[in-house]
Amino acid sequence: MASSSSCRALHCLLALFLLCSFAYGQLSPSFYAKTCPTLELIVRSTVTKAVLVERRMGASLLRLHFHDCFVQ
Questions:
Q1: From CA 24, how far away is CA 54, in angstroms rounded?
Q2: Does 68 count as an annotated binding residue?
Q3: Can you give the pLDDT at residue 63?
Q4: Secondary structure (3-state) at 64
Q5: Which of this chain's residues are annotated to bind Ca(2+) (predicted)?
Q6: Which of 29, 21, 5, 14 is nearest to 61 (CA)?
Q7: What is the pLDDT of residue 36?
Q8: Helix ranges (DSSP H) in 2-56
Q9: What is the model's pTM?
Q10: CA-CA distance, 28 to 21, in Å (whole number)?
Q11: Long-range CB contacts (< 8 A, 24+ apart) of 62-71?
Q12: pLDDT band at 1; cut points 50, 70, 90
């Protein structure tokens, strides 16, 4: 059950990162397709491992993302 919720949290984080890149940086989902085609897999596996080690990591990353992106 914990891995299911952490996976769901990871997908939400990834969606937020992609949405912010569209809104602010005008990046496309395939921006790194040629230069680093495995980027999404690398990020997903790294964040998943971090969440499995420390359950609060997903919330910490989300908080960090909003603080860095929206607080001026």
A1: 30
A2: yes
A3: 85
A4: helix
A5: 68, 71
A6: 14
A7: 87
A8: 2-20, 39-53
A9: 0.52
A10: 8
A11: 62/12, 62/13, 62/16, 65/13, 65/16, 65/17, 65/20, 69/20, 69/24
A12: very low
Of 71, 46, 68, which is closest to residue 57 (Cα–Cα)? Answer: 46
Give pLDDT, residue 71: 58
- Could you report how far apart the first and last alpha carbons of the chain are, in Å? 37
Which amino acid is residue 13, in one-letter code?
Answer: L
The single residue of 26, 38, 56, 67 carrying the catalytic annotation is 67
Active site residue 67: yes
What are the distances in angstroms from CA 8 to CA 14, 48, 55, 60, 64?
10, 10, 13, 15, 18
